[in-house]
Amino acid sequence: MKEINVSELKDNMFDAISKEWMLVTAGTQEKFNMMTASWGGTGVLWAKPVAFIFIRPERYTYQFIEEGETLTLSFLGEEHKDIHKICGSKSGRDIDKVAATGLKPFATPEGNIAYEQARMVLECRKLYADMIKPEQFIDASLVSRWYGEGHGGFHKMYVVEIEHVWVKE
């Protein structure tokens, strides 16, 4: 993979996140986990290029994000939806997702985990995090729609600085 400047990104990040999906990966080279995410975004905050992601505390990846300072957002392309489906429906507590999906992890120069299958990787450092709070919703219908029975707990929102962008050569 080659590194590009964040300003060189040509992707429509709305489509990349919501339609293609991304793998959120955190941990060390010795022990890490990844999960599929389709909620989030990118932009500029505090004069930095940032991404924001939402993770439910009951997800196994959550503990890895909490323990570390960095994470990666890997975009595999539409042709790898099968990998995303496994990483979004199975827990790393129960299965070896690398073995189950055929993912080929590698460490970036900073020591973060990315995948050979990725067409693009955003390597990020945590800046801010807070729990989504039901009493802060202005549109209360979203609470029952996304956090009602069978949906799981409220997400934690992370704002992360995009420190490196890697693209497939």
From TrEMBL:
One GO term in the molecular function aspect is: FMN binding
Q: Output the InterPro entries linked to this UniProt entry.
A: Flavin_Rdtase-like_dom, Flavoredoxin, Split_barrel_FMN-bd
**Domain Flavin reductase like residues, every copy:** 18-169
- Note the Pfam families from the entry: Flavin_Reduct
- Family affiliation: Belongs to the flavoredoxin family.
Q: Can you name this protein?
A: Flavin reductase like domain-containing protein
